[in-house]
Amino acid sequence: MKQGPGTVKVNGLDIWYRVQGQGPVCLVPSPGWGFSVDCYTRTLTALSDRLTLVFIDSRGCGRSQRPPATTDYRYTDIASDLEGIRRALGIDMVWVLGHSHAGVVAMRYALDYPTAVAGLLLIGTYAESDAAHDEEVARRKALRHKEPWFREVDWNSIASDQDLADGLMTALPLYFHDYAKLQVCLPDITASTYKVHPYHGWRDSEKFSVHMLDRLSAIKCPTLLIAGEDDFVCPPMDSRRIQEMVAGSELHLLPECGHFSWLEQPQGFFPLVREFLARHAD
Q1: Are 45 and 65 in contact (CB under 8 A)?
Q2: Are 40 and 109 in contact (CB under 8 A)?
Q3: Which domains does the chain have, with CATH numbers?
Q4: From CA 152, how far away is CA 228, in angstroms rounded?
Q5: Residues with Cβ < 8 Å from 92, sequence gap 6 or more?
Q6: Crossing angle for the helix pair 196-206 and 161-171, nearest 10 degrees?
């Protein structure tokens, strides 16, 4: 595949992507709530000698065109974009690496297009925003209330791109086990841009929720789950529940690690992915 950036028309939208690496093709979409893919292009390149990484700005995010309405950001819409990219690039089957919200999209893609998926790499994600999930998130958040950096964010008041960026920067310490490591990783995270239209799209299309757990037994491809033991927003219980539903899937929990596991514990993260790919991607 031609290396570097490109744009493809998918579902009437211009979707931006960047190709880097060699080996089996792996789509890496940005989380569809407004975060561009730049953080991933800067920090997941260690896998480019093993995979042809296709980094994608999800619809409305980064350099990709936004859809007409904020009701056009359903998980099925974003999964359909991935399928359009796969077809446009002429690829028979793809791996999908999805972190957080993008992990939800990856699972949705595997459900909607099972013959197109060679395998899933699911990083700090979840499949059900039920009472058990919400209670665990609240419990873990409460444990950090006395930290000197802790600040509440009114996510319902987000009205602009800058509001979204400011809100994430305020909340970001919650997403790391080690505050000092966050400071080291901050330049990579802040390399991404933030768009409020897809954030409102997540609200208007999916009500900030996901209900997919009872369908996951239909996923039959090789699936690796990696989660941080100290992830508050996608707690380990979420990955355990996914593992229980996806036959043959593997779960690894990384100690002293929050939501950005490959940034906080790269020495644990990357060998796990490489070893899994060695068994399933050749």
Answers
A1: no
A2: no
A3: 4-280 (3.40.50.1820)
A4: 22
A5: none
A6: 80
Regions of the chain where pLDDT drops below 50: none
Nearest-angstrom CA–CA distance, 36 and 40: 9
User: Sheet containing 94-99: which strands, arranged edge to edge?
Assistant: 4-10, 13-21, 52-56, 25-29, 94-99, 117-123, 223-228, 250-254
Spatial separation of the C-alpha atoms in residues 196 and 205, rounded to whole Å: 14
What span, in angstroms and rounded, lies between the C-alpha atoms of 199 and 165?
11
Strand spans (E) along 148-249? 223-228
Whether the CA torsion 206, 80, 259, 152 is positive or negative: it is: negative
Q: CB of 216 within 8 A of CB of 127?
A: yes
Paired residues of 45 in beta bridges: none
Residues 6 or more apart whose CB falls under 8 angstroms from that of 136 comprise 235, 237
The string of pLDDT tens digits covering residues 231-268 is 999 999 999 999 999 999 999 999 999 999 999 999 99
Q: How far apart are CA 57 and CA 79, in angstroms?
A: 13
